[in-house]
């Protein structure tokens, strides 16, 4: 048997395949039928992968790419590199290089390094200076300024830095070093600290740019569209079907749809035959193309000039701006538009339209083909057609815009200064840069989330969000979140549905419910998002591998059979006669590390697509040769010994990244036993289809799927530990659990993300039974003694802060000591908490309304201060204290006080208030299976049922929660945890893990239970605690990990009898925060009307609300007033009090009358005796 | 007023195991209500001593004041002195013994992490007998290891005064004297011999194996009979009954809970000896009954 050429030797010529593969290929053919052995500890690849990647590599990679490469590309771009001046032709200002430095801040003219923790506490921005090397003219001399050591000579602004990016101080630090910097080692980074707030730039999903998409429009017609995007321009080009079946170009630049044949003709393809050859000469295609050619003929468009005139007459007014000179013929304009605007991502150099002609022909060809065969229509929701835009890309857009604006500003100042004949000094451009422009633009965009890119007329809101620090998982979940640009209001199911192509890339469970369901998604555990990669070497490689450049072959060859078009990132490279070979060779080079690991190549129909653009989602897979996995136990052993890392697997061609499109060329086996001869890849671990948040659920594959989705939403509301540095932060609101635990039933994901170190819940012994009736509708019964012992106890920390401003007139806000009442040594009343410095003392117990910071603000902040006075008298200030607004009857403790100053030099005072709460009736709890419930009753331990061993549940859950929800996973968790406590080993419930030993199965759990004297079913015989009689049924009892959710009655309960009213309408205020009334709404009102309780209606709607007594003139029907001098009511128009009547009506009604009067409408009341 | 008749039962107690921290006894000739009353009293009405008030002077540890106070409260204190003490809600004179004052004064001076444990508590000089369970009895015995309160780093300090008081488990779980207290009904198992004999040997063996709690039934190889070995081990799992159904012979065995024999198991936390818990509980029960008895005749008079 001779060695087959494929997969043959590795390109390095050494042929270092492992024995297994070698044997399978070259050994005894009979062995081929043997079952493939499982790769022991294949799972170990996952921790290795996460070790190199971290959980938020996509963000960090994208940002690193931006600050290291893309920013330089932006500065080198044609329009940005050089600033010239209209008035002085000799002037120029040229950027030669740009650098983003290390994080630092300038305070009191001293530049110092800063840490993220300092920025959080001090409300500053974690940013680094952007510096440039420049070359410019100053007077007659040319100044060249160059910095060194990776720092430029001139600072042009500050760039907010992403945590853990290349420039961040946290990069590559050990746990001890991180601790020294006040940072949690489990914190993933990937966010920004702007003005003290942690901001995440969410991943944005959009349709991929520069790709032809064949779609069906609203009329059911096939269209082809391309969204072209280059640095300078964005444009959308459509080819649609005209009324007569002709192909038309639809573009913004033209007033109407224009004939495609005319377009091609205008680009220099004059003969019909040539057009036919380009698009396709097969009879079916030719027939469909005929109407187009016919129309062109009927319009008399035969030569290029005619076609250009035709197009020129249809250019949209106002689009002339594309040409620089105004006096241009329409023909020239049309040519310009075709060259630079239509499908602008295909470059046209010196009006050589060849590339663009081929591209448009391919668009037409694919469109016509789709009309014949509807299966060729693309799916917009297919994930291979999507690109994810990350922080780096979004910041690059913003930066380029700001950079351009800054340069325009520089140009304007240069124009102005240089035009003046006699200037005082020489104009130094480097000193006239608007440094604030970039700094402020970046800072405000990130802190507000409004992305305004002027040149693309882009206006996006909500791009950034504050990092949710409710729990560790909430923060982590936010970093993997993807939002879609799709409008939420549209009632379409397509973009919301779970697409099969999302398999392994996006988490199928983690999406919110409600309006944004399916539009907000989350990355799966092993997903990576690519960044841009250089195209030129890839193109060169494709040519070397036998691609014929498109410009060298004729139109007929493009469309002949067996020949494939080769695309690189959406542009045509050329054609290849043996596409399969090209793909194979390309992949081999990639596996050998000669091509970037994230470059994808795939064959679809008769085209080869090479993609190296950023924003594609991809994931690693084990490569198989004819069904034999390249990774063997020998490799995983090396991994376990620590000799190999994940990158070694990549380097040795054992594992590779596949993006969504390339997955279509692969046959991926889930397990080794599924491997067949045609199998090309093997999954690393099936549970990686789930994301971080869904990974916390034990046995999710046994649950009804929406339950997992519910848990994904709830896991983010669970209290627990936030980070190792949780006690050193000053967040507005922080919920912590007093005794968080690690779940008895864990999953591999839990261990990988560190949830076992920062748990958010407790293992409660749950009895599934009915008790007392206070457990209906998912309510749970709690054991009072468990609460005494600390179950569900939580700490709520809330920040109350203020800034001492410096005002225009050089006055400053102050904090003063509280006034001492006579004969007392300490302040009393509302000032009770205050120290001598006017700030509450840590450890003091506060009750509602007490002052925390005794701040004073100057009365006048504008008028200049009188000269003679150095200090102002106390009367010049008015009090502006910060006080604690807590629930009445509760007390709270001053935990910490922080005094510092921020970026602007203002003093910042923050006080942290601490409140420890034990669970009460109405607090919300949830297990990890979407089973939430409120505490219905708290029962003393002696009344709780107990087993003969003396075990007594912490929590009783009603069995009605199970049948309709079908959360079998929760039952498995219960018996699994029970086995875990009995035998002292944490059990596992990893998704789909029973087969691979990553989850304990029911059999072994039952065995453990029986070994330790429990029933195999997890049921126990219980005795009633109140009567002492045995319960008739056996009770399913064991530990379940319960989460305390942030919704607590204390923050929500509200009732009022009397209280504040709104000034305008005199009706009760609205909302709990304003101590508002409880509204008797329309529907309640309707009930009362229906019932006929008129007096109750009157009371509710008027007497208890805004009853008002008015005086009405019986004669003219207008509202009168009460004259205190006369002691009677007076009519305003008659000026008499003769016919005045008094009546009661809602104040809002009186207000309406008066408002109507104010707009010259007279409402008159006609009164009758009652 | 009715008097108990001639055939009134006199409850019997038979002690099986008696250790300082564990007591197992059989209570017989009484009703479940009495047994349960005893259990409930042992759980929540036997007075013990626990730290109830904490005044913190200095706390620079990582745990906040409430946190430490809560932990202090849960430390089990040896409560033999509780009988001489008066609780907060009891009628007490000036000289009555109500408070035990302890203090804690620790500062970490070393570079290493330091453990603050129950051993660091300074006892009340007047009442040295009130001390945490396992107080300074050696760190090596795992059972007597002191209770960890908080861990400290260099220069952290904890200074506080704690007052321990008498209380009962009804007020707070920290006063509960037992880790577990429970009772079990004695099962009464009777095998239908006639029906059992219709089974084959294999079926008999299978039937015995069906019960997960081993040792309840035994297949005697010599007599070829199924015997009840130790009925007490039976867990009411119903498997034997299910197996009988499966074999098509329902009624092979009848299992009942005897309503007059209770096996009690009391496991103390160490604050009181297990036997003291039981005895005190009986005393409390008696006192309650006496109170009731004293109140009843007046009611009778009122009713008639």
From TrEMBL, chain A:
Chain ranges of the RNA polymerase Rpb2 domain: 209-389, 465-529, 566-624, 646-674, 1076-1166
Subcellular location per the Swiss-Prot or TrEMBL entry: Plastid
Top-level class of the enzyme under EC nomenclature: transferase
Domain DNA-directed RNA polymerase subunit 2 hybrid-binding as annotated: residue spans: 693-1074
Cell wall biogenesis/degradation as UniProt keyword: no
InterPro entries per UniProt: DNA-dir_RNA_pol_su2, DNA-dir_RNAP_su2_dom, DNA-dir_RNAP_su2_hyb_sf, RNA_pol_bsu_CS, RNA_pol_bsu_protrusion, RNA_pol_Rpb2_2, RNA_pol_Rpb2_2_sf, RNA_pol_Rpb2_3
Record Pfam families: RNA_pol_Rpb2_1, RNA_pol_Rpb2_2, RNA_pol_Rpb2_3, RNA_pol_Rpb2_4, RNA_pol_Rpb2_5, RNA_pol_Rpb2_6, RNA_pol_Rpb2_7
Enzyme Commission number(s) from the entry: 2.7.7.6
Top-level division of the source organism's lineage: Eukaryota
Keywords: DNA-directed RNA polymerase, Metal-binding, Nucleotidyltransferase, Transcription, Transferase, Zinc
Keyword Acetylation in record: no
Alphabetized Gene3D superfamilies for the sequence: 2.40.50.150, 3.90.1070.20, 3.90.1100.10, DNA-directed RNA polymerase, subunit 2, domain 6 (2.40.270.10), RNA polymerase alpha subunit dimerisation domain (3.90.1800.10), RNA polymerase Rpb2, domain 2 (3.90.1110.10)
Catalysis performed (reactions): RNA(n) + a ribonucleoside 5'-triphosphate = RNA(n+1) + diphosphate
Domain RNA polymerase beta subunit protrusion: 54-439
Primary role: DNA-dependent RNA polymerase catalyzes the transcription of DNA into RNA using the four ribonucleoside triphosphates as substrates.
Family classification: Belongs to the RNA polymerase beta chain family.
Subunit and partners: In plastids the minimal PEP RNA polymerase catalytic core is composed of four subunits: alpha, beta, beta', and beta''. When a (nuclear-encoded) sigma factor is associated with the core the holoenzyme is formed, which can initiate transcription.
UniProt-recorded name of the protein: DNA-directed RNA polymerase subunit beta
Species assigned in the record: Coccomyxa subellipsoidea
Automatic annotation (TrEMBL), chain B:
PROSITE patterns named among the record's database cross-references: RNA_POL_D_30KD (PS00446)
InterPro entries per UniProt: DNA-dir_RNA_pol_30-40kDasu_CS, DNA-dir_RNA_pol_insert, DNA-dir_RNA_pol_RpoA/D/Rpb3, RBP11-like, RNAP_Rpo3/Rpb3/RPAC1, RNApol_insert_sf, Rpo3/RPB3_RNA_Pol_subunit
Keywords attached to this entry: DNA-directed RNA polymerase, Transcription
NCBIfam families named among the record's database cross-references: PRK00783.1 (NF001988)
Xref: PANTHER family: DNA-DIRECTED RNA POLYMERASE (PTHR11800), DNA-DIRECTED RNA POLYMERASE II SUBUNIT RPB3 (PTHR11800:SF2)
Domain DNA-directed RNA polymerase RpoA/D/Rpb3-type, chain residue ranges per copy: 22-295
Originating organism: Coccomyxa subellipsoidea
Family stated for the protein in its record: Belongs to the archaeal Rpo3/eukaryotic RPB3 RNA polymerase subunit family.
Keyword Transcription belongs to the record: yes
Protein name per its UniProtKB record: Plastid-encoded RNA polymerase subunit alpha
SMART domains: RPOLD (SM00662)
Transcription listed as a keyword: yes
């Amino acid at each position: 048997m001779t060695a087959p050429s494929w997969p043959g030797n590795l390109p390095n010529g050494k042929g270092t395949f492992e024995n297994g593969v070698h044997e399978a290929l070259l050994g005894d053919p009979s062995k081929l039928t043997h079952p493939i052995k499982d790769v022991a500890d294949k799972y170990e690849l996952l921790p290795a992968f996460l070790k190199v990647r971290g959980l938020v590599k996509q963000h960090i990679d994208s940002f690193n790419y931006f600050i290291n490469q893309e920013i330089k590309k932006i500065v080198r771009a044609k329009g940005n590199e050089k600033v010239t001046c209209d008035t002085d032709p000799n002037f120029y200002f040229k950027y030669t290089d740009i650098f983003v430095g290390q994080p630092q801040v300038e305070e009191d003219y001293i530049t110092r390094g800063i840490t993220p923790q300092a920025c959080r506490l001090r409300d500053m921005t974690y940013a680094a200076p952007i510096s440039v090397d420049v070359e410019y003219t100053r007077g007659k001399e040319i100044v060249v300024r160059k910095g060194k050591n990776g720092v430029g000579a001139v600072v042009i602004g500050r760039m907010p830095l992403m945590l853990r990016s290349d420039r961040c101080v946290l990069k590559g630090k050990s746990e001890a070093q991180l601790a020294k910097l006040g940072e949690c080692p489990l914190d993933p980074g990937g966010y920004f600290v702007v003005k003290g707030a942690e901001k995440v730039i969410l991943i944005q999903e959009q349709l991929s740019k520069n790709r032809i998409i064949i779609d069906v429009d609203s009329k059911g017609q096939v269209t082809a569209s391309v969204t072209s995007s280059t640095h300078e321009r964005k444009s959308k080009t459509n080819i649609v079907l005209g009324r007569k079946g002709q192909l038309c170009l639809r573009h913004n630049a033209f007033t109407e749809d224009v004939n495609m044949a005319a377009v091609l003709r205008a680009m220099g393809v004059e003969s019909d035959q040539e057009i036919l050859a380009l698009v396709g000469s097969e009879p079916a295609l030719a027939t469909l193309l005929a109407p187009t050619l016919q129309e062109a003929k009927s319009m008399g468009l035969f030569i290029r000039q005619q076609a250009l005139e035709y197009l020129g007459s249809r250019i949209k007014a106002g689009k002339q701006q594309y040409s620089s000179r105004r006096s241009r013929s329409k023909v020239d304009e049309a040519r310009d538009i075709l060259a630079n605007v239509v499908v602008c991502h295909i470059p046209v150099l010196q009006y050589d339209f060849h590339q663009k002609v081929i591209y448009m022909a391919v668009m037409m060809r694919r469109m016509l083909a789709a009309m014949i065969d509807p299966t060729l229509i693309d799916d917009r929701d297919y994930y291979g057609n999507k690109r994810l835009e990350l922080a780096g890309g979004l910041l690059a857009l913003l930066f380029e815009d700001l950079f351009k604006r800054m340069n325009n500003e520089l140009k304007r100042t240069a124009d102005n200064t240089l035009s003046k004949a006699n200037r005082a000094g020489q104009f130094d451009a480097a000193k006239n840069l608007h440094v604030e422009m970039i700094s402020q633009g970046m800072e405000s965009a990130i802190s507000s989330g409004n992305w305004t890119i002027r040149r693309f007329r882009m206006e996006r809101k909500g791009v950034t969000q504050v990092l949710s620090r409710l729990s560790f998982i909430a923060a982590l979940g936010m970093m993997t979140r993807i939002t879609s640009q799709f409008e939420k209001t549209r009632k379409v199911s397509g973009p919301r549905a779970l697409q099969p192509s999302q398999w392994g890339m996006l988490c199928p469970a983690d999406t919110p419910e409600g309006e944004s369901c399916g539009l907000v998604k989350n990355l799966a555990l092993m997903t990576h998002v690519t960044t841009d990669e250089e195209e030129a070497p890839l193109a060169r490689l494709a040519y070397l591998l036998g691609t014929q450049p498109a410009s060298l072959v004729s139109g007929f060859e493009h469309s002949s059979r067996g020949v494939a078009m080769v695309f690189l990132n959406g542009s045509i490279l050329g054609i290849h006669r043996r596409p399969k070979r090209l793909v194979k060779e390309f992949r081999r080079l990639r596996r050998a590390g000669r091509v970037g690991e994230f470059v994808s190549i795939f064959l679809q129909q008769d085209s080869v697509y090479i993609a190296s653009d950023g924003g594609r989602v991809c994931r690693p897979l084990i490569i198989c040769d004819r069904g034999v996995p390249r990774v063997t136990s020998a490799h995983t052993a090396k991994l376990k010994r620590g000799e190999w890392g994940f990158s070694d697997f990549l380097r040795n061609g054992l594992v590779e990244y596949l993006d969504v499109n390339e997955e279509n060329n692969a046959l991926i086996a889930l397990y080794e036993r599924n491997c067949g001869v045609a199998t090309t890849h093997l999954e690393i671990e099936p549970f990686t289809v789930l994301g971080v948040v869904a990974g916390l659920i034990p046995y999710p594959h046994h649950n009804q799927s929406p339950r997992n989705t519910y848990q994904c939403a709830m896991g983010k509301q669970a209290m627990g530990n936030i980070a190792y540095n949780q006690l050193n932060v000053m967040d507005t609101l922080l919920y912590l659990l007093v005794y968080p635990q690690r779940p008895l039933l864990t999953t591999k994901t839990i261990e990988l993300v560190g949830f076992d170190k920062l748990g958010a819940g407790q293992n409660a012994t749950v009895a599934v039974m009915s008790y007392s009736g206070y457990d209906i509708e998912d309510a749970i019964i709690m054991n009072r003694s468990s609460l005494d012992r600390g179950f569900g106890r939580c700490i709520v920390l809330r920040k109350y802060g203020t800034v001492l401003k410096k005002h225009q007139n050089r006055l400053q806000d102050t904090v003063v000591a509280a006034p001492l009442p006579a004969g007392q040594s300490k302040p009393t009343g509302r000032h009770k908490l205050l120290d001598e410095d006017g700030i509450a003392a840590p450890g003091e117990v506060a009750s509602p309304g007490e002052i925390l910071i005794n701040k004073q603000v100057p009365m006048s902040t504008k008028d200049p201060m009188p000269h003679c006075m150095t200090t102002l008298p106390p009367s010049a200030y008015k009090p502006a204290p910060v006080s604690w607004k807590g629930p009445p009857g509760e007390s709270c403790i001053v935990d910490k006080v922080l005094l510092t100053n921020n970026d602007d030099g203002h003093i910042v005072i923050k006080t942290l208030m601490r409140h420890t709460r034990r669970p009460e009736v109405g607090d919300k709890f949830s297990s990890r299976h979407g089973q939430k419930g409120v505490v219905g009753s708290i029962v003393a331990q002696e009344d709780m049922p107990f087993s003969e061993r003396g075990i007594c549940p912490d929590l009783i859950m009603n069995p009605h929660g199970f049948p309709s929800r079908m959360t079998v996973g929760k039952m498995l968790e219960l018996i699994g945890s029970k086995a875990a406590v009995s035998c002292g080993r944490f059990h596992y419930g990893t998704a789909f893990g029973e087969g691979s030993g990553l989850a304990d199965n029911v059999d072994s759990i039952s065995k453990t239970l029986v070994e330790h004297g429990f029933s195999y079913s997890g049921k126990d015989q219980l005795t009633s605690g109140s009567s002492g009689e045995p319960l008739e049924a056996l009770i399913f009892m064991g530990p379940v990990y319960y989460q305390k959710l942030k919704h607590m009655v204390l923050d929500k309960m509200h009732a009022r009898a009397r209280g504040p009213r709104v000034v305008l309408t005199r009706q009760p205020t609205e909302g709990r925060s304003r101590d508002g009334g409880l509204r008797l709404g329309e529907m309640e009102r309707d009930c009362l009307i229906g019932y006929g309780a008129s007096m109750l209606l009157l009371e509710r709607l008027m007497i208890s609300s805004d009853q008002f007594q008015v005086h009405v003139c019986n004669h003219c029907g207008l509202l009168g007033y009460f004259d205190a001098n006369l002691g009677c009511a007076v009519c305003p128009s008659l000026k008499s009090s003769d016919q005045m009547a008094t009546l009661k009506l809602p104040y809002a009604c009186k207000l309406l009358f008066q408002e109507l009067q104010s707009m010259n409408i007279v409402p008159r009341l006609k009164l009758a005796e009652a | 007023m009715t008097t108990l008749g001639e055939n009134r039962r006199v409850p019997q107690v038979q002690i099986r195991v008696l250790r300082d921290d564990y007591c197992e006894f059989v209570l017989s000739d009484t009703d479940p209500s009495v047994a349960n009353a005893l259990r409930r009293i042992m759980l929540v009405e036997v007075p013990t001593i626990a730290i109830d008030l904490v005044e913190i002077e200095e706390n620079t540890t990582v745990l906040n004041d409430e946190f430490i106070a809560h932990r202090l409260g849960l430390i089990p204190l040896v409560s033999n002195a509780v009988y001489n003490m008066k609780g907060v809600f009891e009628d007490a004179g000036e000289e009555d013994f109500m408070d035990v004052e302890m203090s804690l004064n620790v500062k970490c001076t070393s570079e290493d992490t330091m453990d603050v444990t129950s051993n660091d508590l300074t006892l009340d000089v007047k009442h040295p007998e009130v001390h945490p369970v396992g107080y300074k009895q050696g760190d090596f015995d795992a059972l007597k290891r002191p209770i960890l309160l908080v861990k400290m780093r260099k220069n952290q300090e904890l200074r506080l005064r704690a007052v321990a008081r008498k209380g009962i488990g009804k007020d707070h779980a920290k006063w509960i004297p037992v880790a577990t207290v429970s009772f079990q009904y004695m099962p009464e198992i009777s095998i239908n011999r006639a029906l059992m004999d219709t089974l084959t040997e294999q079926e008999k063996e299978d039937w015995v194996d069906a019960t997960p709690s081993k040792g309840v039934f035994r297949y005697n190889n010599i007599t070829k009979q199924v015997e009840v070995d130790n009925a007490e081990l039976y867990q009411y799992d119903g498997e034997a009954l299910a197996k009988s159904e499966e074999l098509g012979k329902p009624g092979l065995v009848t299992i009942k809970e005897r309503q007059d024999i209770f096996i009690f198991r009391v496991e103390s936390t160490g604050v009181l000896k297990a036997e003291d818990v039981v005895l005190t509980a009986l005393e409390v029960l008696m006192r309650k009954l006496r109170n009731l008895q004293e109140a009843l005749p007046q009611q009778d008079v009122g009713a008639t």
